[in-house]
Amino acid sequence: MGMDMEQHLKARRAEILAAALEVFDAFGYERATIDLVAAKAGIAKGSVYNYFSNKQDLFTSVFVESVSAEMAQADEILARTDLTPFDKLEWMMDQWFVRFGHYQKIRRLVLDVMAAAAREGEEGTLSQVLQKLYAGWRSRVADVLEQGKRSGEFQGHVDPVVGASLIMGVLDGVVIQAILRVGVPVDQEFLSALKRGLLAGLTANEKRGQEPFFHATCNPEGTGDSPRANPEKVPDPFSPEGESHA
Fold this sequence. Notes:
mainly alpha; Tetracycline Repressor, domain 2; disordered C terminus
């Protein structure tokens, strides 16, 4: 009976989080209310407070839950000894590409999270969550880059922490521009070119036949050896298969 109750509580909490995700994305943080979340979940308002202390707690939990599963999956992949550092980094980028479609769907939530964290300051709850999240991903990517340096797969002059920060900065920038609709159209061809360019900038030239970063990314006409002329296959976030992973 105890186990049944525990499963019931977990299921109810998941239902509330799913409803809250839709409400926050549809209305934004300021206009969203616990009443709307409860109505969306089909439960009484008081039931929400059995799991979350207030709207900010619920808002933070929605964001944390949306990224915690992928971090756990990443740890499993990064711990594998049968994958090279290149393979691991490529997998991480592929996962980001899959998640891109999801970020597009919850664009209002993504922007609200960043805005709320900025308003709170460095000591705020949501700001602390973001700091921990970014530090975790930066550490994971940096570890892979360090492994690649030791194995000779990545260029020796690459600083792992700087490299990890640059990769995350580029990917975050693409997400923000796509959400605000101020950048170039992001399709599978664009993602393929981005992936190849980033990997080529890190990979030792004699490895995998990669060219230097400049030559791998700066041919917008789609001719010659440009990645746009020969895009590598990456998960398509715009396909039903890609969206199913979101």
